[in-house]
Amino acid sequence: MKVLVTGGAGYIGSHTTLTLLEAGHEVMVFDNLTNSSVESLRRVGELSGKKIPFYRGDLLDETAIDSVCAEGGIDAVIHFAGLKAVGESVANPLKYYRNNVAGTLNLLGSMERAGIRQLVFSSSATVYGASERVPLSEQTPLDATNPYGRTKEQIEVILSDLCHSDPQWAITALRYFNPAGAHSSGRIGEDPQGVPNNLVPFVAQVAVGRHEKVLIHGSDYPTPDGTGVRDYIHVMDLADGHLAALQHMQDRTGMFRWNLGTGFGSSVLEVIDAFSAAAGKRIAFDYGPRRPGDAAISYSDVSAAQLGLGWAAKRNLAQMCEDHWRWQKSNPTGYN
Ligand code: NAD
Ligand code: WQD
Fold first, then answer.
1. Calpha distance 211→188 (Å, rounded)
2. Does 194 map to a domain?
3. pLDDT, tens digit, for every residue of 243-274?
4. Of 100, 172, 174, 306, which residue has the fewest beta carbons closer than 10 angstroms?
5. Does any domain span residue 248?
6. Which DSSP letter does residue 336 get?
C-alpha cells in the first residue's frame, strides 16, 4: 500500500514509518517539523535502505495538504500530526484546538477530495480522563480532563460522524497508553524539546546526566508502593499496532477504536528500578507532591485489540528501558 504518514518525523511516526517500510509498504511523510527533525527520517531511510518522500508542510495550510493528497495513488493515511503537551494545552487551549482539531478537519477535507477513505488516527488513553475503573476498556466513558485530551475526544466524534455520513470510510482510532522505548538499533528514539514532562524520557535524561534527579509526583497513592501506576508500551509494539490496524481495515468499513497497551501496570518506582538496571547505574530521585490531574492507576484492557485486531504487545518494561537507554546513551542530546 501507499501510505501517507502525517507527523511521520516525530517519535511514534518515525518508528511506525520504519515498520511500514519493512513490511513492504510505500511511505510518504508530511510534517511541519514543529516538534521534530528530518534527521529522524534520514535515519529511518538508512535503517530501511529505502527512500522516504518528505513534504514539509503544516496541516493548517489547506493547500499544502491538498496538493500532497491530490498527488494520487495514496491508499491510506496514518495521522500522528498533533501537539501533545498537556500543560501547554491548559495554558493555550486555542493553539491546541486549532492545530489538532482544525488540522484534522483540513486533512479529512483533502482526503475526501482525493478519494482517500482509510485513516488511522493517533488517539490516546487520555480520553478516559482520571477514571480509576481499571482496566480501562474501550467501553469506559470518555472524560478527558484537559484541552489536549479533549482535542482527541472531539476528533474521535468527528471521525465517527464522518463514518456515519459516508459508508465508504474506514477509520481506526488507536488509544495509546504510555509510549516509551526506542528502535533496538539505538538510531531513532524520542527526542523531547525542552524538559520532558513524561516519566521515561526524564528518567533517561537523568541517567545520561542532563538532570540531577527524578522528582516523583506523589508517594501517597493507593498503589502497592504509593507511586502512580501506568501501562508503558514499547514504541515498536505501537508501530506493529498501526500495521495491524491498516491490515484490519482492508476488508472493512466503519469506525473502530482500540486500546494499545500491555494490560500491565508499572509504578514510578518500578520504572526507575528497571531503567537503573538497564543503564547499570543508580538513578537518583526525590519525592514531591502529586501532580494535579494525575490518576493513581491507569492500565489497559487489551482483550478487544487481541481479539479484533489480532495484535498484542510483545515487549516488556525491561526491554523498553534497555532500548530507550541504548538510544539515549548514543544520542545524549537527541538528534542535535
Ligand atoms: P511528536 O511530537 O514526536 O510527533 C508529532 C509530529 O507531528 C511532530 O513531528 C510534529 O512536528 C508534527 N506536527 C504537529 N502539528 C503539525 C501540523 N499542524 N502539521 C504538520 N505536522 C505537525 O509526538 P508523538 O509522541 O510521536 O505523538 C504522535 C501522536 O500520538 C500525537 O498525535 C500524540 O498526541 C499522540 N499520542 C502520543 C502519546 C505520547 O505519550 N507520546 C500518547 C498518546 C497519543
Ligand atoms: C507517568 C507517571 C506521573 C514525570 C501523559 C499524558 C497523556 C499521554 C501520555 C499523550 C505518573 C509520574 C512523571 C515525572 C513522575 N500523552 N511522573 N515524575 O501522565 O500517564 O500521561 O503522557 O496522549 O495524555 O497525560 O504520563 O509519563 O507524564 O507520567 O513521578 O517527572 O509518572 O505522576 O504517575 P501520564 P507521564
1. 22
2. no
3. 999 999 999 999 999 999 999 999 999 999 99
4. 306
5. yes
6. -
What domain count does the chain have? Answer: 1
Residues with CB under 6 A from ligand 2: 84, 86, 124, 126, 178, 197-199, 202, 214-217, 228, 230, 268, 291, 294
Residue 120 three-state SS = strand
Burial class, 292, CB count within 10 angstroms (exposed 0-12 / middle 13-18 / buried 19+): exposed
Does residue 124 fall inside a structural domain?
A: yes
Residue of 15, 35, 177 best suited for mutating to test ligand 1, as the one with most atoms within 8 Å of CB: 35
221 CA: nearest ligand 2 atom:
34
CATH assignment at residue 118: 3.40.50.720
Q: Is residue 79 part of a domain?
A: yes
State the cell numbers at 220: 501517597
For residue 211, the SS3 value is coil
Mutate to test the pocket of ligand 1, among 31, 60, 152, 197 (most ligand atoms within 8 A of CB): 31
Q: What is the pTM of this model?
A: 0.98
Q: Are 11 and 35 in contact (CB under 8 A)?
A: no
Specify the residue with its C-alpha closest to ligand 1, atom 6.
7
- Which domain range does residue 72 map to? 2-181+232-261
